[in-house]
Structures are given as structure tokens and as C-alpha cells.
Amino acid sequence: MNPPLSHEQLERARNAGSQLHHFHGGLRLRHNKKISCELPLEATPLPPRLFVPMLQHSGLSAEPTVKPGQHVFKGDQIGYYGVKEEMAVHAPTSGTVRLLTRRPISHPSGEDGLCVVIEPDGLDQWTQLDPIETWHHADPARLRQRIREAGIVGLGGAVFPTAIKVDDAHERGIHTLILNGSECEPYISCDEMLMREQPDSIVLGARILQRAIGASRTIIAIEDQMGAVDQSLKAAVMKSGADDIDIVKVTTIYPEGGEKQLIQVLTGVEVPSGGRPADLGLLCQNVATATAVAKAVVEGKPLIERIVTVTGSGIRQPRNLVARIGTPIEILVDQCGGYTEDAARLVLGGPMMGYALSSDSNPVIKAANCILVLSELEIEPPQPEMPCIRCGECARVCPALLLPQALNWQIRSQQWDEVLEYGLKDCIECGCCDFVCHSHIQLVDWFRYGKAELRSQQAERGKAEAARARFEAREARLAREKQERRQRLEQKKQDLRDQADMKKKLAESIERVQSRKDGGK
Amino acid sequence: MSRKFDTGGAPHFPPHSTVASVMQQVLYALVPGVVAYVWFFGFGILVQILLAVAFALMFEWIMLRLRKQPVRLFLGDYSAVVTAVLFALCLPPLAPWWVAFTGMLFAIVLAKHLYGGLGHNVFNPAMVGYVVVLIGFPQVMSLWLPPASPADYTLGLGAVLHTIFLGHLPAGMTWDAISQATPLDTIRATLATGGMVSEARESPIFGDFGGLGWEWIANFYALGGLWLIWRRVISWHIPVMTIATVVALGLVVYLADPGSNPAPLQHVFSGALVLGAFFIATDPVTGCVSNRGRLIFAAGVGILTLVIRRWGGYPDGVAFAVLLMNMAAPLIDRYTRPRIFGQ
Between chains, do B10 and A352 touch, taking CB under 8 Å as contact? Predict the structure, then answer.
């Protein structure tokens, strides 16, 4: 379906970052990031209870490996999922497992999920750690294994298990690692603060990742509106002595931080539809993921905390916090001075792609880059949905070059073949179409529904295929058995015939002998 | 203590525009053209606009009630008002009231609601209404006034209202005395009797390019249209391509036979071309979605307009051209789909 990548395109991918390009559509949004960048990073205190969800990655939920009453050390594995345990969850502090229970887990579906509830003992005592201090000489396979054990997922919000990405990258052969520091959604500033305050850790993570996947260079992409961030990163690169790490500033246009958009900006080449950056010899990771890798390798610590931006006009003192996974959101809000009087909506993530939470008792999860509290004014008034007037604004802003209004009609009228043909699977759910829609159609919601429908149809088809295969196998087996039975029967008959022949021959020869004897008398 | 919140879908922003605000901007953009119209042709057009809007809202209300749709929401979207104003701008200023009534009946009831209401209609409702009255009442649709400055209006407001509501001129006036053929009519009639365009143009009703007065109205429509492009309510593709096609094709036929073809700019500034290019062919519901599709759509409007003007049965062809291209729009959309990212 896609034309193969040309030599020239691959060459451009190899020279990523040397020249900047544009992507189609997108939005220029008000940044609103400064408000949360004024105070330095601060750690969140230990809450009375931590609620660690087992589902914190894309895919299926992890299985808990602890029981109520059991004592855990900080960093002990408390659950995992996957054949190679690529989705592991760890204890964010030392303490006692109180119970395993289903409760709200800050998942986009809004559904409850299994949580391990830990009551901290206050000692915050690490488990036995196994740092790989000599990572420069370590076997890359060992580094990748460590990334797997540490339960690292993409911290930009997609929470795809990093181990899977890294293994795939290693197998496919990657020349350039791209560290994505262009957080394009308004309000979110956790990556910006990280790049300002812990640039060394990012550079270290970049070098380790580079070794783990065998890439020859790294590009750290940041936004042109991030002020002094490039200075601090450059200084860190200098300090590390690495000469294969470049820092590239990209223009702030939402969603330029999307993986495919960022690669288009850096290379001018589009990741093939249905393909991956690895097709171009690239691997994209969030900057915070790189620091998690650095910690996992050099300090031996699994992913148990992350930086969270707590911001919005509904928060008294917006800032960035370092919070343990499982900390109830209300604890973070309290640390930021609490809510303002007109706080009206609690969003996990940014204003474009984040989802509204119904309660601040929900826990911080690995995906929680931002807790955004908006005031009445910023979300009101809710508008009723009008019919689509085909103005085409959605298509103008769509970075995936789709026709959202056409997809909307097709999904509503269940024309699934058309939906596939019009590229629903290429939708990145950035919400640009939703934002500009004059008729206030919740396009992204429809697209998510459409994708879920396609997935379940595929699963149905898969089941039908499997049933057909089973049926055919059974038919074949029955036919084979019948054939074998017939053969056995034939064989038996033959044997009987043979036996009869034998008897006859025997009788004849006996007779002959007898007659000879008789004749000899 | 934990706190509960109401949820809602992303994006979490206040709505930055509405269907109603789009329609309102289209109405604002028409104001300069309407003012120029009144300046040259008197109050008749204002009365036509008010009548058409009133009938449109009435039919809209009836249909929304019959279709059990939220009346307040849809009456407030201004789409029926835009239809009515565009329709009224096509009428002779002194047309009797039942012309607007009939036009709006067909535009709102038939072309809009029987096809499913806002967003679902295949044909431009204003043009359906206009074509119905053009074909149905050819005589009253040909009674145009000569341009004049306000001081020389032949009819006062009272006479205008009298004519529109009673259907005949006040005592002592005759249509022969006050009405006048449009520039396109004049050219057509001259050509039909074996004359040349240059002869027709000797008539005092012509201005620099198009008809006297009409060309200024067209300029002000274009001004409003440019504002809509600047506001991103419409894209440049349709107006630019429509006018460019008319100029380019008009130039070819003009150079081939200047005697029986008006100059390209004469075409642009005559009839409903500028209004059509900026306000009618740009109707999103009945047009094409992609920019490439819009260019093809607009070229079709331009070509058909010229063809109908030159060889068709009517002096102007914008309305027919738009309706014909409305039919072609879904097909054009099908073949002008943008390439999907990464394919």
C-alpha cells in the first residue's frame, strides 16, 4: 500500500536535524507554561497510603506478585505482565501491602482497575539495588534487560513499554536516537523543568540508550520557546564529553511533539502509514524516559516516581513536583496551595489530549505528566453539537492529512470499509479537528469509538478464522483417520488372506509330505 | 478530603467559534455590498431582504417543529438568514412579496429540510429558491431598475412598499417608464438581433467594466469577501479560481471573436459573478472539502457560467452553474482526497 522508502528518504533520515521541515496543519496555541516554571522542582511527601495501579502501560494489566500483609522495600517488584515481564510495577516506598482492590486508576476509560495499596513505614528503605556503574563497557543486552526490569514506559504520555521499543530498535538497526523534549501541549512543563534542572541525567540516559540500541548519534529536540533550556543541555553535553549528541530547536506548533510530526520536522520524511520510526532507522524516546533509563542503569532504581506539572487557573501555586507513582492527586494539589475558588475541572494531561477525572483521590500514574485544573471560565459554556457543515477546517489542521469530517460521517453510518480506506488508523488523536470544529462535534471521541470497533471486528474475524482453521483441521483429521482405518482394514484382510494362503500352503506341503510318506511305504 | 469534579470531553477549551458565528460573519461581510446596492437602486432591496428573512425564519420554524428538532438552537444558527439574504440579493428590487415567499418555500422547505436540514442539503438552498422563481415568474424577474444616485430615485419608500406588497406600481407610473434591462440582458438582446457587443456597450447603463452601479456593488461584495478570507471563514480557492476561470476563458473567446463576446472584465463585473464567487459557490455544505476539490469546483462554476451566458437560455448563469456543480461535488470530493500521512 505504501511505496517503499527511497534511498534519498533514508539518507534524509540519516541526516535528521540538519535541516528543519514543516508538517501539515496543527495549531498555534497559547503556551501557558510559564506559570508552572517559576518554582523549582520539589518532592512530594509520603502520603498515608499509596495506591499503585497494575495497569499503567498500554496493553493489559499487570498481575500483582504481592499479598496483603506482606512487607515490601522501596523498588521491590509488586506486579508484572508479559512473557518477558516488560511491564513491571514496583513499590514506590517501603511499607506494608494493605490490600489489593479495584478502584479508580486514572485510566482514560474511566474504569476501575486493580491497585496494590501500600501503607508506608516511613523509612523509605530501598531494596537491594544492583547498579551497572560500568555501563560504558556493559553488554548492550544487559542494558536492555535492565530497562525491562525497571518497568520503564514512555513518559511522554503514551506509556508504551520502553523495553519493547528498545529491543525492536536493536533488532532493526537504528542510527539515530531522538530524545523528544518538545512538549507541545499548553500548560505542561514537566519536561522543560527536567531539562533545566537535570540536564546531566538526560545526557547520561541518551548515552546509555545509544549504547543499548547501537545508535551512532542522538538528537535532543526542544521547543524554540523554552528559553535557556538549550544552554543547560549544551553545557551538560560538553561536560559529558560526548560529541555525538546534538540539540535541535523546533518551532512550537501543536502537535510538533507527536512522534511522527517531530520526525517529519527533523527529516522531512513521513513515517510510513502503519510503519514505525525504525523503518527510517530512528528511535524516538521522551527525555524523561531517558532519565529513567539513566537511573535504572547507573543507580539500579526502577521507575517509581515522575515529574508532574500541577497547573491551571484552578491551582493556587502552580509548579512541578516529583511524585511517587500511586500518590493521590489531592496530596499534590495540597502541596501547590490547593484549589482556587473557581476550580471546575480536573484534567490528567494537557488541555488538548488529557482526560477529565471525576475525583482527586485518583493516583498519580506513570502516564501523569500533568494535572491541570481549569476554572469555570475556561471550559464554559458547553456547546450543543450541531450538524457538520463541511467547512473543511478539520482537514486543514489535521497533521495526519485525514478528512475528519468524512470519517465522522462514515463512522456514524458504520461504513467500516470506507473508514479504513480513509485512514482512521492513521489518526493520532491530537484533537486539532475537535478544537476548530464550528459545530462542536466530538470528533476524537468518535474516532476512538471507531478504532475500538475496528479492533473488535478484527478480533471477531480472528476468532472466525481460528474457528475455521479448527474446523478444517478436524475435517482433515477425520479424513485421515478414516483413511487410516480403511488402510488398517485392508491390511487386516490382506493379512487374513496371507494367513489363509499360508495355511493352504502348509496344508499342501503337509499333504505332499504325507503322500510322499504314504508312497514310500 | 478528596473532591469530586464534573467531567467532559477533550479538548478542554472554551469553544472558539460556532456555526452561528460563522454565519454572522458572512452576514457582516455582505453589509458593504448591500449599502452600495441601496445607494444605486433604492430601498427596494432592503425590503426584499427583510421579507425573505421573515419568510425564511417562518418556514424554518415550521419545518423544525414538524421534524421535531430543537427550534431555538437551529433558528439561532443564522443559516436560514444567510440563505434569505443571498436569495434576496438576486431579486429585482421591486419584485412582489410572493416572489420571496415562493423562493423561501422552495429554498427552506424543499432544498434544505426535506434533504435533512442544516449540513445535509445537496443543493445550495438560496440558488434553488432563485432558480424556481426565475423559471416560474420570468416576467417579474426581469423588471430591473436603472442605477441612480439617491437624489434621483424615481420611487420613494412609500411607492416601493406599495409596489412590493400590492404587486403593481402606484397610480401614474408604468413599468415601461421606470424599468430597464440589465447589462447582460442588453448585450444578449443586441447580439440576438445581429448587433455587436460594442454597439450594446454604447447604452448609458454601462460603466467602466460592467453595468453602471453594478460594478461598484460587485467591488463592495468583493471587499466583504476578502474580509471573509482574512477571517478564514472561507478559503481563497473558490473565489479566486471562479474569477480566474471566467477571465481566462472569457479572454480566449473574446480574442477569438471580440464582436460577439464581451470583454473578460465585463463578465466579471456583470450579473451575480462576484457575489457568486465569494458568497454562493463558497457554501461549504454543498461544495467540495479539499482545496484541490474546491479549485475544480470553482473552475466548473466559472466555465458553466460563461457557457450559459453565451449559449444558454438565460442572460446570467451563476445560479445554474452553482447548482450543476453542487451535483458534481461528491464525485469531485471522491477523486480529490488528500494523500494520507505516510502513504
Answer: yes
